[in-house]
Amino acid sequence: MIPELGQFALILALLLAAAQSVFSFTGAARHNEIWMTAGVSSARGQFFFTGMAFLCLGYAFYANDFSVLYVASNSNSALPLQYRLAAIWGGHEGSMLLWTTTLALWTVAVTVFSRHLPAVFRARLLGTMGLISIGFLAFILFSSNPFDRLIPAAMDGRDLNPLLQDPGMVFHPPVLYMGYVGFSVAFGFAIAALLGGELSPEWARWTRTWTTVAWMFLTVGIAFGSKWAYYELGWGGWWFWDAVENASFMPWLVGTALIHSLAVTEKRDAFKLWTVLLAIFAFSLSLLGTFLVRSGVLTSVHAFATDPKRGLFILAFLALVIGGALTLFALRAPRVGLGGRFGMVSRESFLLTNNVIMVAAAGAVMLGTLYPLFLDALGMGKISVGPPYFDTVFVPLMMPAIFLMGLAIFARWKNTELPALAIRLKWAFAVSVVTALILPLVMGKWTPLISLGLLMALWILTTAVVSLRERLLKRQGSWLTALINLPRAYQGMIVAHLGVAAFITGVTMVKGYEVEQDLRMSPGDTAQVGSYQFRFDSIHDEPGPNYTAARAHFSVTRNGNPVTVLEPEKRMYTVQTMPMTEAAIEPGLVNDLYVSLGEPVSNQAWAVRIYIKPFVQWIWAGCLMMAAGGFLALLDPRYRRRNKDQQEGEKA
Amino acid sequence: MKARHKRIAIIVAGLVALGIAAALVLNAFRSNLVFFYTPTQVSKGEAPKGTSFRIGGLVEQGSLKRAENSLDAHFFVTDTVQRIEVVYSGILPDLFKEGKGVVAQGKLGADGLFHADQVLAKHDENYMPPEAADALKQAQKAQKTLEAK
Q1: Which of A460, A542, A606, B139 fits a 20 to 30 Å CA distance from B56?
Q2: Same domain as A370, residue A353
Q3: pLDDT of residue A63
Q4: Residue B139 belongs to domain spanning
Q5: Residue among B31, B28, B34 nearest B120 (CA)
Q6: Can you give the pLDDT at residue B8?
Q7: Which of A370, A572, A581, A599 to mutate to test the interface with B (most CBs of B within 10 A)?
Q8: Based on the domain organization, do B21 and B41 belong to the same domain?
Q9: Is the full-model pTM beyond 0.80?
Q10: What is the pLDDT of residue A459?
């Protein structure tokens, strides 16, 4: 019964999404309050029923209802409850439902927090989001229905892929989707602005809040995923330039460009068209990413051939959204206008350059990700693009971007004098270069790449320090209160940029100084890795809820002093008879100690990976700092003015 | 006139920068493409010498041999028609198993062996890496046309 209820709720949600669009757009066209209000109510109803469908699917997983095909293929009665619930988004159909539910959530948030927007604009925004909802709900109902029955019911489920049975699975997809789908709001704002033919600095201020929130979620979501890969895949990498990762990275790059370009649109009324275009691209890439990861096209382009309906729908939907938005852009762009002018050396020009670099980087990632798919789809052979491609493209692209990042903080809007900039930053530059050259020598190994990486991180750090110093010299009262009293937007920018510095430091140190050893070890053996001794004490069997594990015991010492005990596992998941490596990690501020078990290579001996990963935690800490910077910036009073507008709007 | 010259100069500079960036990207792209060959193609000598490429197929039953005192491994990758001997030193992935699909990346040595620096097996017991599946399909097709003749 419950699955049918879910199915029914989905149908109602689809109808309400249609109502949301029709009422909103008609209301906007006729300036009719009643129609527009009906649009808002439909949007809320749509959320109610989408959420209900989601809960119904959740219940089917909770109750182990293996008469539902999707549950039977992604869950098992022995699966612990938290993973049964996370299994809701363990496959294609459920992921699509999560996507739609997230979209409905954002839509409802827009209806609640947008009373300050002009009614017509708000109606167009909701209408656009309704169109996207229609697309996704129709896709689910017609080609990816999670409520399809399996008759006769399976005795038990085929289990969730053991790789996904991890706390990461509980958090990573919903947070990532909050980010992906959040860009739909920015997209809606862009379309509404194009329809109205007007784009004011106020528009940018409204859009900025939403975009920043979405970008924060995306940042944290990607960081979660990276961390998960690091400890779960058992080979200690944190980023593989895998198509699945690239799919989330492309919208992040464009989204990052977007939040910076929105800043210019708000402050200077410039970059208007560019901002709109970025909003369209960011969301288009989110869509592309969702489909890439979830449609099975990556495992085989021929997945489309086995289910042509699905593939056709996806291509048509992408073409409609992207093509429609760009057509509207082409038609309306001249009316929106270019906006304020600026000099060749100015904060605007620096930001624009970095924007272009971010988009170019996204383009390079896209080339490496999609080209093999195209070639395969056309039957022109199978190729793969190696990670070295992405590395060789990224480093040179990011160098000028990072350099400008430091400069842009100091540059004035409209026009700035280069010599003055040079004088203000000469110390920052000198300190960065000298430290970057010497520090690797102190640490015992010098390569150009390590120096370069440190230089970039140090440049961000020193410019931030100089900027803070300049501001704080004008202070009244103590340093601390002055620091707290700085504008929130400025604090946010500094924190986020320092996050980039922390991230670069982590990447540089791991790449430069990691120690990786694959060894053959028997119980009793000791291995010297870096300055640590790893002793393989013993190994024993340990039963788990739906697996049996071989758990090893390693004692780690340094110069005879005990450091820690690490217990990596090799698990055999019983339902799918699939082995899984569970690495044991001792995280630290400067070093991660990492041990994972390979396979047994004889009666006694095991293949063992022992890694020392310096500063690897800084990578994720840096991402969290970037997100925290976004959060600080949102606290800026000028966004709170909105609440005042809102209250006044309600009074009126 | 002066402002216009300046603008043209900016546009030209921008285009040049973009052109250089595009050239760098495409160059890096071309030199990092990894092509895929089936065991049959490799034994016919179609695979390149000295550059890295991928092979795919099944790990032949009973072919995996481990060295006594190191992590060196020997095994055959087969597409059911031809087989290639692969040498690899390191830890094999969790799902590496005799009789299952595998993809290896590496170079063909002067000794005729395939020296793999990467061995991939995907994360699903039933699921075959697309390259491996492709190799098997091509081999079967070739077999059929042979029999038809």
Answers
A1: A606
A2: yes
A3: 95
A4: 36-148
A5: B34
A6: 81
A7: A599
A8: no
A9: yes
A10: 97
